[in-house]
């Protein structure tokens, strides 16, 4: 019985250590991985505005936006939001935004799903986008982690954004 208690204690300490150190590193790596993917796409769009214009006017079918506006917004979203995600600035909000953006990108470019959208969702189409979505969901669920600007700001101003429940009485 003592041996079982010792094993359980070792497991618990190991799990705590992993949560404290490995978790923040994993969240940082996920944020950087996804951020780099989107940033590289933005750089390609920025470096070739004519190609970007052509793609958005012929290949991409972005809902609700004109092709020119979608090209402009897509380029700048992909150049700015990866920095916010990578640094962990408004981490959950940025991850939610990029998650929705990622879904819109997949829906807008039917060449990503040559076997049909639903078959591609379950099968092997648009795997990069699925991996990015899973990583973004992790950031949405657990926040950007200890290695983020959000955490630094929370340590500098621990009561920021929290309402005070104390009632002040006049003397």
Q: Explain this structure to me?
A:
The protein has seven helices and no strands. Helices cover 73% and strands 0% of the residues. With 171 residues, it is mainly α.
Helix count, per DSSP?
Answer: 7
- End-to-end CA span: 63 Å
Shape: globular
Count of individual beta strands: 0
Structural class determined from secondary elements:
mainly alpha
Percentage of helical residues?
A: over 70%
Largest sheet: none
Q: Would you tell me the overall average pLDDT?
A: 89
**What is the radius of gyration?**
22 Å
Please tag this protein with its features:
single chain, about 170 residues, mainly alpha, 7 helices, globular, disordered C terminus
SSE order and pairing:
Layout: H1 2-47, H2 49-58, H3 67-87, H4 91-108, H5 117-122, H6 127-142, H7 149-156
Helix pairs in contact: 1-3, 1-6, 2-3, 3-4, 4-6
Short description:
The chain is mainly α and 171 residues long. 73% of the residues lie in helices and 0% in strands.
């Amino acid at each position: 019985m003592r041996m079982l208690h010792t094993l359980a204690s070792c497991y618990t300490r190991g799990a705590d250590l992993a949560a404290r150190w490995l978790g923040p590193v994993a969240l940082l790596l996920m944020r950087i991985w996804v951020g780099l993917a989107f940033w590289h796409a933005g750089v390609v769009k920025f470096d070739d505005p004519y190609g970007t214009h052509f793609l958005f006017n012929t290949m991409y079918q972005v809902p609700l936006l004109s092709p020119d506006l979608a090209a402009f917004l897509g380029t700048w979203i992909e150049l700015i939001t990866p920095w916010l995600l990578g640094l962990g600035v408004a981490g959950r909000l940025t991850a939610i935004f990029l998650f929705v953006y990622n879904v819109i990108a997949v829906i807008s470019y039917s060449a990503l799903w040559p076997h049909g959208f639903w078959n591609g969702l379950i099968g092997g189409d648009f795997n990069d986008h699925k991996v990015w979505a899973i990583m973004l969901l992790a950031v949405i669920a657990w926040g950007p982690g200890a290695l983020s600007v959000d955490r630094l700001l929370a340590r500098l101003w621990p009561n920021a954004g929290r309402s005070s429940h104390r009632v002040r009485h006049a003397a």
